[in-house]
Design goal:
Layout: E1 2-9, H1 17-27, E2 31-35, H2 46-51, E3 56-60, E4 68-72, E5 76-80, E6 92-97, E7 108-113, H3 127-143, E8 154-159, H4 172-175, H5 183-196, E9 199-200, H6 202-205, E10 215-216, E11 229-230, E12 233-237, E13 245-250, E14 266-271
Parallel strand pairs: 1-2, 7-8
Antiparallel strand pairs: 1-14, 2-4, 3-4, 5-6, 6-7, 8-12, 9-12, 10-11, 13-14
Helix pairs in contact: 3-5
This protein binds one DNA strand of 15 nucleotides through residues 11-12, 15, 36, 38, 63-66, 116, 118, 128, 161, 217-221, 259, 262.
Length: 280
DNA sequence: ATGGTGGCACCGCCA
């Protein structure tokens, strides 16, 4: 069974619904994880999402800011929304696929929107950067110890707002002091991955020596000029499911669509084998 | 070297 999972920071799901529809029509993901939906749950465009063919929808939103959602063709039997840093921010949602989801049954998908962290890369001067580091520390604490069962299948996607590797940014040297690529963040991210046992699926398909970006700033007259991008969006997998990954696609062309998000969709395809259920 | 754009809520905040 093929499982196609896409992560996309849409920067307002209501404003971008026609682009979401276009993406779904052209790429048909089984699971679409969105970040920055920017809509409170009571105003979530559930009808439009169902019309796109997703029978199973989970969302965690708030008014104006943040917000995450998972659209799925496969049923789930558990939904979790974790309130990182006890701030009441809508930055996480996870689902576990139900027994009826075939070979995906029991697999868990986490959808995360890590704080951007403001402009000044100093937690003592910038509370937003302090929040980002606290969020990463909590994430590390949560996943520390990895996966209790060797068969636990978990996928973590989202806008993690960190470009961890040298070639995840257009200029490593020029971005070392820029929030998203500072050593304190990239090291914190490496700790989360190492302590949790997560595998960077995108880099299993694109060598670390090759530039790989998922985001290009709005603050440029021409986003293609100089290709000044960053890899802020990620697909991670537990050891039980990482070997089942078959491909990664970064849809760069979506940055050139009419009224685009500043992030583009990232899609992973997994070829799933036998199932085993576990708790989120 | 600085400021650049975009979204939402509301005339500022966050990215």
């Amino acid at each position: 069974m093929r499982l196609k999972v896409t992560t996309w920071n849409v920067n307002s799901v209501r404003l971008r619904m026609s682009l979401v529809a276009r993406f779904v029509a052209e790429h048909r993901p089984d699971v679409l994880c969105l970040q920055e939906t920017k809509v409170e749950d009571g105003k979530f465009p559930l009808g439009e999402v169902r019309r796109l063919g997703f029978g199973h929808v989970a969302y965690n939103g708030q008014k104006g800011y943040h917000g995450v959602a998972i659209f799925s063709q496969l049923p789930f039997d558990q939904i979790e929304k974790r309130d990182f840093c006890a701030k009441g921010d809508a930055r996480h949602i996870a689902v576990r696929f139900a027994p009826e989801a075939g070979a995906a049954a029991g697999a868990v998908v986490h959808n995360l929107y890590i704080p951007a962290g403001g402009d000044i890369p100093d937690p003592s001067q910038n509370p937003k950067f302090a929040h980002k580091l606290a969020f990463l520390a909590e994430l590390d604490g949560w996943f520390r110890g990895g996966f209790p069962h060797s068969q636990d299948r978990a996928i973590l996607v989202g806008d993690l707002n960190i470009a961890p590797l040298e070639h995840d940014v257009w200029s490593h040297r020029q971005l070392l002091d820029v929030v998203s690529h500072t050593p304190v963040e990239t090291e914190a991210m490496r700790r989360v991955m190492a302590n949790g046992g997560w595998i960077d699926v995108m880099r299993r398909f694109v060598p670390e020596t090759e530039k790989l970006f998922t985001w290009w700033s709005y603050r440029a007259a021409d986003w293609t000029k100089g290709n000044r991008g960053r890899r802020l969006d990620h697909v991670w997998a537990s050891p039980a499911i990482a070997p089942m990954a078959r491909s990664i696609e970064v849809l760069r062309e979506a940055r050139g669509w009419d009224r685009p998000s500043d992030h583009v969709p990232v899609t992973a395809i997994f070829e799933l084998g036998a199932a085993r259920a576990h708790a989120i």
